[in-house]
């Protein structure tokens, strides 16, 4: 007799089998990111793409279709906010310099503007866009613009919203290369020490610049990824 418990067990097995098949039915990508970083804040240059420090990381993608992918990454860099990079004469004369190491975890969706089917051996390329959410760690600091003394006193973690654009193409049946630039809007105004929080939060003499105008940072660089886990389950129509 087919009991309710048997039905539950059968449903569980079926769902587990489907999940495994879906997992193996995708093409996965695992790769590296190498490039540069810059800030857009109260210190330094205000150009959107102006890489002045090395950035590295690892990137994973789970291609759901030829157009959409889930993407996760870890990246790190030392964000440099240097006034002598600025074309603003008042900033250049001030000559403040701040370094802030950052460790970023990111997750979200990547959208391909063209079909990008890695089942094909033919050369393919597509522009793409990525967004999601970032969670990153950075140093808390305070900066005296008279003595130019930087005091790092703690670390903090917060979120950022990324907007990344790039272009990618397959160079073989298993490797994909890309170039991208991504800006992050952060939920903090203290990457450059201009609006300290914590123990120095109530000291207005240590605050400067456009207060409560949150900081941005940018990663620009190249990706190289290895593809694996392919089955002929999704194929674009010829």
Beta-sheet strand percentage?
over 45%
Q: What separation lies between the terminal Cα atoms?
A: 49 Å
Shape: elongated
Rg, nearest Å: 23 Å
Number of strands: 8
The chain-level structural class is mainly beta
Number of domains: 1
CATH architecture level-2 label: Beta Barrel
CATH topology description:
Porin
Largest sheet: 8 strands, antiparallel, barrel
Major sheet: arrangement of strands: 1-2-3-4-5-6-7-8
pLDDT < 50 runs, ≥5 residues = 10-25, 232-238
Which class in CATH terms?
Answer: Mainly Beta
Number of helices: 2
Question: What does the average pLDDT come to?
Answer: 82
Helix content: 10-25%
Order of helices and strands: HEEEHEEEEE
Report on this structure.
With 238 residues, the protein is mainly β. The protein has a single domain, classed as Porin (Beta Barrel). The chain has two helices and eight strands. It has helices at 4-24, 89-94, and strands at 27-40, 53-63, 68-82, 97-112, 125-144, 149-170, 175-186, 216-228. It has an eight-stranded antiparallel β-barrel. A hairpin with a 4-residue loop joins strand 6 and strand 7 (175-186). The radius of gyration is 23 Å and the shape is elongated. Residues 10-25 and 232-238 have low confidence and may be disordered.
Comma- or semicolon-separated keywords:
Porin; 238 residues; mainly beta; 8 strands
Summarize the structure.
The protein has two helices and eight strands.
Topology diagram in text:
Layout lengths: L3 H21 L2 E14 L12 E11 L4 E15 L6 H6 L2 E16 L12 E20 L4 E22 L4 E12 L29 E13 L10
Antiparallel strand pairs: 1-2, 1-8, 2-3, 3-4, 4-5, 5-6, 6-7, 7-8
């Amino acid at each position: 007799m087919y009991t309710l418990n048997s039905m539950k067990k059968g449903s569980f097995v079926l769902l587990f089998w489907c999940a495994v098949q879906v997992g193996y039915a995708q093409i996965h990508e695992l790769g590296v990111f190498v490039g540069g970083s810059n800030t857009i804040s109260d210190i330094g240059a205000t150009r959107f793409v102006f890489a002045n420090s090395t950035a590295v990381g690892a990137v994973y993608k789970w291609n759901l279709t030829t157009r959409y992918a889930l993407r996760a990454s870890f990246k790190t860099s030392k964000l440099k906010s240097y006034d002598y990079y600025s074309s603003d004469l008042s900033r250049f004369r001030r000559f403040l310099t701040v370094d802030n190491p950052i460790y970023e975890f990111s997750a979200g969706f990547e959208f391909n503007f063209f079909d990008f089917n890695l089942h094909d051996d033919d050369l393919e390329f597509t522009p793409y866009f990525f967004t999601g959410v970032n969670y990153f760690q950075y140093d808390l600091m305070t900066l005296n613009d008279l003595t130019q003394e930087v005091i790092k006193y703690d670390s903090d973690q917060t979120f950022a919203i990324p907007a990344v654009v790039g272009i990618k193409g397959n160079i073989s049946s298993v490797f994909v290369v890309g170039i991208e630039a991504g800006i992050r809007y952060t939920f903090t105004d203290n990457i450059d020490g201009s609006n300290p929080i914590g123990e120095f939060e109530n000291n207005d003499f240590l605050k400067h610049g456009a207060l409560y105008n949150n900081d941005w940072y940018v990663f620009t660089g190249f990706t190289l990824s290895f593809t694996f886990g392919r089955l002929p389950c999704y194929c674009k129509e010829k």
